[in-house]
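User: Here's a protein and a ligand (fe (ii) ion). What would the complex look like?
Assistant: Let me lay out the input and then the predicted complex.
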Amino acid sequence: MRYVPAEQLTEGMVLGKPVYNDNGNVLLREGVVLTMGYISKIVEMDVSGLYIDDVFSKKIEVKDVISEELRSNSVKAARHLLLETGNGKNYQKSMEEVDKCIEKIMDEILSTDSAVINMINVKSHDLYTYQHSVNVCVLSCIIGLACEMSRAQLKKLATSALLHDIGKVFIDKAILNKPGKLSQDEWETIKTHPELGSECAGKKYRFPTAICRSILMHHERYDGTGYPSGTGGEDIPIFARIIAISDVYDAITSRRPYHEAVSPAEAYEYIMGNSGRHFSPHIVDIFTRKVAPFPEGLSVKLSNGMKGIVFKNYEDCLTRPVIKLYPEPGHPEDRFLDLKNDPCALDITVLELLS
Ligand SMILES: [Fe+2]
């Protein structure tokens, strides 16, 4: 399986992972052969790319940290809860569903030996908010687990992470999705969402203080330059320090009306570059061991000019994957370059992810 950007999808390609519609149900199953009609629909949904199956990438199994079914159920549950909360409807059943999904997300993450984010989570325009919430929850759980949190702590972290942006349901969608630059007033309105969210978590959902404070402080920055209060360093609760990194990583690797997606490697650099500035150095250190900058199945260019796809990542050395090289004239056989173990490859680096 390999990742193909939306602009490079062609008729006849075979889908490797399902595509979901606006309600969170399966639109196209894996194994479906792409037609021009399907590709137009995918482009219309503003999907950045898809995983496809082909002969060259058939031995690459791109694995998510949680099952496809749980991810799709969690996106649907988050969608129901956010919509009902925003519309002032009864959200009790959706809250129970969200709670069940959070328990299952923790079960699945706790049952894997070493959970590492090793793929691009494909999002569509209409499901972005809910897919982003689930991604922030999963990544935060992985980091929390690496911090040796108890299950009870993980549950609070996961709940805060899944609902970190709940305050946005009370903000005008025209401002939230505005493609251009925000006016000062609009920006000030957006900046109220942590307080609105924290209030909702406490007064409506009756969540404990730890969750309300994490939602309130997920935009605080380690150097004190965040909002709403400018709290810095270890005064920011650990849940909020974790969610801050998960939130930014997932947001900047997503295509949005106001920005293009950056590659996982660029986002990885951004997070590392902001260690001790925006983000807690301790959490950044864990993040770099839990997120692959070069996810399996992505096309890359190497510093020696060669090109290929990321075949396998080593969980203890995520910057030095095994690359399956693209065939060249005279070399029809499969060729691999192991950047971690091959002595001839020690001076070769991955230059960039190709789109
Ligand atoms: Fe936020």
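Summary: The chain is about 40% helix and 15% strand.
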